[in-house]
Amino acid sequence: MIYILDKINGELIESEIVPMGKKTIPLKKDGWNFNWRQLFGEENGRTYVLRTLNSPDHTEGALCLRYEHDMLIMEALELLHYNIGQKNKRYDYVAGCLIAFGCRESFKIKSDYKGFLTFVSKTNLINWYAEKYGAKLALGQRMFIDWENGERLIEKYLNLTK
Question: What is the pTM (predicted TM-score) of this model?
Answer without folding.
Answer: 0.95
